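User: Show me a protein chain along with its predicted structure.
Assistant: Here is one chain, sequence first, then structure tokens.
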Amino acid sequence: MTFNPYASSPFSYVSAPSAAPYSIVELMPGARNLIRYAGVAPGERLLLLVEHTVDPVVVQAIAAAAAYRDADVHLLSVSPFSPGGWDRDACHRIATAAFREADVVISSTWWGEVHTAPLFFSQIRAQGVRFVSLHMTATGGALITGARFPNDVFYELLRRTLQRMSTAETIRVTSAGGTDLTFSGMVFDPDQGPPRPGEWRPFPYGGVNFWPKNTEGVLVVEDCTVTGVPEEPVRITLEGNLVRGIEGGAAAEHLRRYAPGGYYMRHALMGLNPKVRVAGGTQFEREKHAGAFYCGLDGLTDGAPVTSGPGFAHCDCQIDRPTVTVDGEPFVSDGRLLLLDAPEIREVAARFGPPEVILDDNPVMILPPRYTGGREPADRDETGDGHGAADGLEPAGERPPAPAGQPSDPVAEAVSTPSSAR
């Protein structure tokens, strides 16, 4: 068996550690960031969609933060969703009926709810709801680490990453474990900020997401939806954006069985949040850590990629400490996001506290609450919009246009459907 430091990562909320009741005090800064990120305004109908297994203290923290905004809070507890939409016949009528009546949905599921047909991205877009998903991150650990990272700093990191990557011809990802992938023909999600009506966003905020037209090389799985942490290396060979081979013992057989019709590379994401956990974090936490990378495989439909709906075999594959080059220039070195050292990023971080503290990518060093919301009181409202002058977020529905050359709606203008859960 190959040793892996993440082999004990939880596989559902049942196996995730629970927060002590009094720890709600420590969860509130992250919960408040979540509510501000969702743009929740007084009187809005907020649906908290949670699986039966989610820690009640986490649910209480989110509900309390929403209630403090004077939102009309509703809680719906549901059975856990299946991995990657695999159980395509599952009935979600009550959940879908409820989310259609909400202004904002905050979803706390283990596996992404958007991999089901009734809650797929296109359905969210059609209903006009603002949707924020805490898939694998509705935990106390996530709320006191990645959720505390200031929104403004994340979006400055994203903006500068997009400036460099969106014009690139190739992105190459390698790892000490043997991964060596080259992406080309990328289309990027501009992700200009918190969700507008009809948009889905993950939380804690994560990274730069793109859809490649072509992927070539070998992906060595460190952790994935189907296998967890495999007992021995699993090697996936890609040619022309299609998976051509899967090797590596029992875990490889599990992968082949999950999508007997084959896989393609649906999307990929590079993490940008330095406060997201690595050791001890779930897969969908670690993918957002600054410098981490993951590949979103999905099942072929009748032998071909279909992006207009769920593939019903979505499998996210994690690479924790990669090296990433953009047109041959280093962008991530052994898991270290080099952009964290940029003076422009440090200038933005300085608005919230010492840059060396805000941008330290060791998430074990938890960000003090006073550095999570800026130097102004977090809920001070000088604008009359109900959001507070210090939020650093635009009111829902207000956002500058997309930068020149980037689609304002990556779903409608770039691809048939957005990526899977980031």
